[in-house]
Amino acid sequence: MSVIVVGTMAYDAIETPFGKVDKIVGGSATYVAYAASNFIQPINQVSIIGYDFPKEEIHNLIFRGVVMDGVEMIKDKRSFFWSGRYHEDMNTRDTLVTDLNVLADFNPKLPDHYQGSEFLMLGNLQPSVQMNVIKQLKKRPKLIVMDTMNFWMETAMPDLENVLKEVDVLMINDAEARQLSGQYSVTKAARIILSKGPKFLIVKKGEHGALLFYDDKVFFAPALPLEEVFDPTGAGDTFAGGFIGHLAKTRDISFENMKTAIVVGSAMASFCVEKFGPTRLKEISKKDIDKRLRQFHELTNFDIELS
Ligand code: AMP
Question: 0.85 cut: is pTM over it?
Answer without folding.
Answer: yes
